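As a warm-up, study this chain.
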Amino acid sequence: MLLNSFRLLSKLEIFRADETPLEVPPKQIIKLGAQLDNFIHYMATFLSGFVVEFTPVWQVALVAIVTPVVVPLIVVIGAIYTMTSVKLSRKSKEALS
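Now compare it with the structure written out below.
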């Protein structure tokens, strides 16, 4: 087994970097690599945060997931209510004038 390893080592060729067509990667590839690295890092952090959150207290995690959906709905309902009450108060003010 050891003799086979030495035979394989003797057949290896030396890698010469000056013969390769791309010695330095283009700036776009470097930039894309950094963005992909950040994306993977932050997505893994985000997903692991949900796993950690769901595990011990899943009821609180459910509230945390539902809140971003419910709060805008409450804002829209409040805006509709405000617009309706303003219109009704204008009508009643005109009726009393």
